[in-house]
Amino acid sequence: MCSNYRPFTDQDALLKHFGVSLPDGKLPLDTFPAYLSPFIRRKPDQYAHEREAQVGRFGLVPRWARELAMGRKTYNARSETVREKPSFRDAWAKGRRCLVPVHWIIEPNYETGAHVPWRIGMADWSPYAIAGLWDSWLDKDTGKEELSFTMLTVNADDHALMKRFHKPQDEKRMVVILPRHDEDRWLDCSVQEAWSMVRQFPADRMAAAPRDEPLERQLF
Q1: Angle 31-37-41 (CA atoms, 0-180°, nearest 5)?
Q2: Residue 208: enclosing H or E segment and its boundaries?
Q3: What is the CATH number of the domain that holds 148?
């Protein structure tokens, strides 16, 4: 699971790497559940076939939720249950898929016997996209539409890198990282085809290091 990550928010770099610009407004350097952070989806005008960046809350809040606080529990969607779980099944069935642009995610490593936060990203530390779902929720008190999103995850018990994180007795999970050539496909394809992209990302194309180490000292 992933509850903390460094979002990719630089305007010039977002335009270069993902072809989008963020709405105006300052965002936190690091993202935790319920924080505002960027996600990328198709523009509502299907004929334009363009991406757009939106800012939403990390933690999907379905339309039927009573309050935004629900998103504190729905920041990750398990692939095994995403099609049936009430929190996610409508967004999945209706194809509300998105890209979550990140520098890296943060996970705890216990190999020293202590909780040590590690950053996890691409082998060259370039930005990457995590497969997500988005939804909108109407605040009946203010009439304001609130956007939110979640990251899909898969089991990683046998993943050479991700099995090193979280407590030894815990199930290992990893976010669904999309290869660059699959980003548009994820946004556009059928629900049935999207399922084929929900899989582990190769460990030999990733890197990890203690969060406080300089990026030059990659330890994987």
Answers
A1: 135
A2: strand 206-210
A3: 3.90.1680.10
